Amino acid sequence: MASKAIIQCSSSSSHVMRTYDVFVSFRGEDTRNNITSFLLGSLESKGIDVFKDNEDLRKGESIAPELLQAIEVSRIFVVVFSKNYASSTWCLRELTHICNCTQTSPGSVLPIFYDVDPSDVRKLSGSYEEAFAKYKERFREDREKMKEVQTWREALKEVGELGGWDIRDKSQNAEIEKIVQTIIKKLGSKFSSLPKDNLVGMESRVEELVKCLRLGSVNDVRVVGISGMSGIGKTELARALYERISDQFDVHCLVDDVSKIYQDSGRLGVQKQLLSQCLNEKNLEIYDVSQGTCLAWKRLQNAKALVVFDEVVNERQLQMFTGNRDSLLRECLGGGSRIIIISRDEHILRTHGVDDVYQVPLLDREEAVQLFCKNAFKDNFIMSGYAEFADVILSQAQGNPLAIKAVGSSLFGLNAPQWRSAVAKLREQKSRDIMDVLRISFDELDDTNKEIFLDIACFFNNFYVKSVMEILDFRGFYPEHGLQVLQDRSLIINEYGIIGMHGLLIDLGRCIVREKSPKEPSNWSRLWKYQDLYKIMSNNMAAEKLEAIAVDYESDDEGFHEIRVDALSKMSHLKLLKLWGVTSSGSLNHLSDELGYITWDKYPFVCLPKSFQPNKLVELCLEYSNIKHLWKDRKPLHNLRRLVLSHSKNLIELPDLGEALNLEWLDLKGCIKLKKINPSIGLLRKLAYLNLKDCTSLVELPHFKEDLNLQHLTLEGCTHLKHINPSVGLLRKLEYLILEDCKSLVSLPNSILCLNSLKYLSLYGCSGLYNSGLLKEPRDAELLKQLCIGEASTDSKSISSIVKRWFMWSPRLWYSRAHNDSVGCLLPSAPTIPPSMIQLDLSYCNLVQIPDAIGNLHCLEILNLEGNSFAALPDLKGLSKLRYLKLDHCKHLKDFPKLPARTDLSYTFLLPILGRAVELPVWGFSVPKAPNVELPRALGLSMFNCPELVEREGCSSMVLSWMIQIVQAHYQNNFAWWPIGMPGFSNPYICSVIPGSEIEGWFTTQHVSKDNLITIDPPPLMQHDKCIGVAYCVVFAAHSTDLEMVPPETERGYPVMGIVWIPVDVHEDVVTDKSDHLCLFYSPTYIGIGDWKLKVKIMDKKGFPVEVKKYGYRRVHEEDLDLEPSLNTAGIRKRKRGTDE
């Protein structure tokens, strides 16, 4: 095996970086396939870099140079002594070289005595004596060889006398675990989970910070601050430390960018981040600071915790609990806890009362050279002819990592004359600070890219790339090319479609905007601080150079609670305007006709200025405004794409928007005085999103043209709306029609039934429809005379024909729940249900019979028949793509369903609810949410509360086999996995709930629950790498309990590491089957469950604890997925001998 390169950062450097953590010396024929294999696997699973030789290196008489080099660059040496170790000259030469390399650090050599007595090694007795007798005979005529044999004797004696592990007659797994833990401690700082580029200069800094934390002191709670200039690497250091020590704590969390969270969500937002991570509850609901304070005190009390707060810029951001008590978090945590606070301002840390402050040092010369080479040359060496330039640049950068990266990246690929010019500029400004160095990268940009840089620095950090590109395009800045240039020069990053700019570069951009008139914001081109806006407005300045304003009111802006906005009338060049949370007054006679994006919540005026010509307007967001009407006359709105007037409670009418031919998004949610919609809305062909939720005075809709692009129409809560305009049925692209709580709605047009693109129809709470009998159907359809549906009537087939047409045209139908007072219903027969049906939800439709045709829907993936009255199901064996079947609360169901014989998940997967995304507002922050639709998140079968089910024996084996088929399909098709219990539309997990109280014998580890938890033991070391997941079976009580909501405290150092939500509600009043139920679920190993000993709590879908009676689990191996055709566990092939648990 080829050795890794030894890194040198300059020709003058003699420092050699160690490239391996551990070197293992062993006799292959003795231990390669047993203890050495297990040891190497365990070390690698911990992220430890191990050198592994192969047989190709063991050829010839002399030891390979690659092996010698690997020894020289390793940190820890493990020597596995076996009976035949001394008979290998290779092993003895390795050992001798190890001893030569560790003369000053003998503690780095760890001997293991596998099947040999340690005294045989020290005294050269037994097999070792025999080996050396052969060497004496073999080399007796060769004096040099005999000298070498003597060095072998000395090496064996030296290492044999070291304290090691005699593992004869002991559990190899237990001993290997001890050895691995010893190695981890000796290695100290370990960054296997961090990118190698982040390692420059990091190890020594982590060691120094660990000393500040005093981890050995287990009785106190210590708070340490990390401070330093921008770009020094404070966050990277904290993350490296967090990676290293977090597993030493019961709970741990890293709250990233506290300043941003505080700005967006205040103290409550910081609280939520802290508690949700510490308590491992992603969707933790906290409604006020007092509640969060109580929860922290209750749930974190006495816990040994590691808490990291990053990017704290104000003292108030740490006052996240009631009473503003900075010390509350310290007081409620258990002994040994550590709190780390990261801030550029050391005064904040001292004021908070930290125990110590660690000032992150600049990079030293060697570290700076190494980092510079990585960025300027994409290599580990300074190129010939550039050393002089590099020296000047590094001396000016003064060890600031971000400055080194930025300057180095800007010089990459340039020739020597260009470097010379850059160095000359640095020499002229050598008295300037780091900002001057970063300025070089800015100055090299062309004028357009400079403007892009300044816009991002002032406004668009952490914005979606797509949104920023749209605004920059409006500004005429050619963003696609410009953003790539900035990214190439390390001025921005693009991760997950979000633009990021380091705080040091943000400071640079804002300094550039201010530099010509530092104290006169009226002369700036951009404005981002509330105080500066207040100064301009209070003095009624013209600010003719101002092009963009984006101000969010912060709670820190004391004394600036209200501004007069008269000066806006004078800003003739303004292109972007955002006032968020700003209380404003005064008068507004004019707005710049150059404006393209306006976001102004709580707009105080009743209309926009009459003189305003919105020719260039792209987006207008006036949430919670006082506006009554926008304008009277028709305006040129050719560029308008999004209009948001939500919660404008005084809005009485919309203007004629006939000129807004590009309008895509119209949000009028909560406009409670709006009675009618301007007819021009129905003519806008590009309109894709129309939200009229809670327009409680709305009585009619406009007529919609047939060729509209409307995809989403929300009428939820329009309580005065009685009829739906039949033209809605002409909207061929409509996917979501939400009519929830339209209590006065008495009819639906037949034309809606022709919407073959419709994915979701919600009629929940439309009591007028239910009372009219629209959604009811008698058992005998022949008795039905006429039903009024919209403006038309139907014949005696009535609702049956309607349901047939729905099935025919909607392959992803989500049928609404009917009321419990409806009588039994019948579904249409076989031919009317289209074979392309993918998802079918007929829950709570009071169906008394399910047609056999459902068994022929070969594309069906999700079938929800919950809450119906049928007694039996048709044969479902042919539904090979079925992955979710829900039969909860089917109180008359007697027969267990026949599940699919094979599961094929190869062609599709659960789609997010919004489907193809509609363009959202990009300048404002009001982004309407997706429809409130609870798609099934589980893959499997749910049969909770089916009291009449007769044949329960064998149910669990059938469900287990089906579950394993689903796991097999995922494993073979390499689908992505999601953690179990994670809420959200796109986070399904494999889980089944059925009646039963006995756990199948296939689950090899079974226990009675003593603490209402599942306790999972760590896997045997030799099986760890072979395990692909863990299958669980839990017996739980199907009734409500008085169990506390708070998870129990840790037990013997093993915390509650996970929560599994089962997809049922045991606290519902409708639960009549009080017998025990089984929950079978599966977790892939890589998401964490099964990797170590931990405890898992079981909750129902509403977050209430479930009483666990007993449980079992099995570590699943690939061979467990090799099923026979029969649907029972007898067909599951046993694992090969040697891998059984």
Describe what you observe in this structure:
Among the domains are: 20-187, 3-Layer(aba) Sandwich (Rossmann fold), CATH 3.40.50.10140; 196-359, Rossmann fold, CATH 3.40.50; 365-444; 938-1131, no CATH class. Helix content is 27%, strand content 16%. It contains 27 helices and 42 strands. It has an eleven-stranded parallel β-sheet with strand order 13-14-16-18-19-20-21-22-23-24-25. Helix 4 (89-101) links the parallel strand 3 (74-81) and strand 4 (109-113).
Brief summary of the model shown:
Helix content is 27%, strand content 16%. The chain has 27 helices and 42 strands.
What is the mean predicted local confidence, pLDDT?
77
Question: What percentage of the residues does DSSP assign to strands (E)?
Answer: 15-25%
The N- and C-terminal alpha carbons lie at a distance of 34 Å
Number of helices: 27
Strand order in the largest sheet: 13-14-16-18-19-20-21-22-23-24-25
Number of strands: 42
Radius of gyration: 35 Å
GO molecular function: ADP binding
Domain TIR: 18-187
Organism: Glycine max
Keywords: Leucine-rich repeat, NAD, Plant defense, Repeat
